[in-house]
Amino acid sequence: MLWVISWHYDKFKLEMTAIRKKTLLIVGPQPPPVGGGTVNVEILLQELKKYPDILVTSINTSPKDCHRQTNIFDLEEIRRAGRIIWKYLVNIKKSDSVLIIATTTSIFTLGSILLFLARTNHVSCYIKPLGADLHFWLNGQKKMIQKYLVKVLSAASRVFVQTRELQTELCALGCNNVTHVPGYRLAPSNRVSEERQTGRPLQLVFLSQIYREKGALLLLEALRMLTSSEKTDVVCDFYGPILKEDRLEFLRQLQATPSAQYIGIAEIGTASQLMAKYDVLVFPTFCTTEGYPGVIIEAMQAGIPIISTRLPSISELITDHENGLLFPMGDSRALVYAIRHLASDHTLREKMGRNNYIKGQQFNADHVIYRMLQLMFPELNPANAD
After folding, report:
1. What average pLDDT does range 48-72 have in this prediction?
2. Which long-range contacts (CB under 8 A, 24 or more apart) does 358-364 make?
3. Is the pLDDT at 115 greater than 90, yes or no?
4. Distance (Å, rounded) from C-alpha 255 to C-alpha 152?
5. Which of 93, 137, 298, 380 is the most exposed place for a label (fewest CB within 10 A)?
6. Which fold has domain 202-363?
7. Distance between CA atoms of 18 and 10, rounded to whole angstroms?
8. Which CATH superfamily is domain 2-184+365-384 in?
9. pTM (2 decimals)?
10. Domain extents for the chain?
């Protein structure tokens, strides 16, 4: 008799524990391929394991192949969307909240369907755009369409955006449920930047998906200019998946650049330790969709200086001559000057590295995700995380 009572008591405790837990459905891209958005989702899923009061289900939206853009009318894309919606319908009624992590195009195609289904089922729905081009896209629409799209965004419980600029611009368009939640990366246990040796070549690193808009070809051009006309001693290692569209051109230019080599794809979670072996991160992107690039955050955590493009989102992270150097988009000569400037000034590199390490603490994944969870589940106390 006692064991029967004990069994019912234990079952009751389990049921009460389940009632207290919250269920979060995450819809977003996961590796492969390795890229800013997929790494963000992967880290989020890892961090959520620390929160015993939140039960997580995820739906992977990544396409099979790594392309610069996807065609939403492609038959395989339609099938993929159908599979995502089916999995979503299976899980939505069991969820307390949904977090949709998507590109601008996906937010207003597949994402709008998922948002409608969440509201129909009385489930809180949060949207986290990838990149920072949402306002550019909205401003390019006709007024009636723009008004409708802003209404779609406003139907979400909250929209979490990476940059201050995007937050300001969306609010100006009438979207008042926007909160700034910056990009994030896993925090190293301590400053990992290694002691620099003098008398050796300046060691640069490029770490990103490799295609034209990310600046890989521009960097190769600058390296050839340095080799042919400058006395600066520089080498550069490239890491990242090479997109099919630019693969042949990248490999051709790489072969023509003696000071550069392609190493491979860095394992997720190791970028800060990897970049600590180098003197400078060079990220000459002219991709206008950039939010807070994860590779810049990882370079900050590694405590090394950064050379990058003067884009609005990147300018929120890098103050020129304080923690890095900024140059005009697409200007290979200005990039050469920036590399040469850091190559000749060891003291400046050390100062920038220290400043980066200090600033990088605010982008540690545990802090940023903690804040986002507080906004999504105010009744829970994420401080009780394991």
Report:
1. 83
2. 359/300, 359/317, 359/323, 360/297, 360/300, 360/301, 360/303, 361/187, 362/182, 363/182, 363/183, 363/184, 363/185, 363/292, 363/297, 363/300, 363/301, 364/184, 364/185, 364/186, 364/187, 364/301
3. yes
4. 48
5. 93
6. Rossmann fold (3.40.50)
7. 12
8. Glycogen Phosphorylase B; (3.40.50.2000)
9. 0.90
10. 2-184+365-384, 202-363
